[in-house]
Amino acid sequence: MERTSLEKLRLGIFVILGTALLVIAAYLIGNRQNMFGNTFTIHAVFKNVNGLQKANNVRYSGINVGTVKDIVMENDSTIDVIMLIQENMMEHIKKDAIATIGSDGLVGSMIVNIVPGEGLGEKIKSGDQIISYSRIGAEDMMSTLNVTTENAALLTADLLKVTSALNRGEGTLGRLLNDTLMANNLEKTILNLKLASANASNTLNEVNKLVMAAANSENSVFGVLMRDSLAGLEIKGIIHNLESASDRMQKLTINLDSIVTGIAEGDGALNYLSKDTIFVQRLEATMKNIEEGTAKFNENMEAFKHNFLTRGYFKKMAKEEAKAAKKEKVKN
Question: What is the pTM of this model?
Answer without folding.
Answer: 0.37
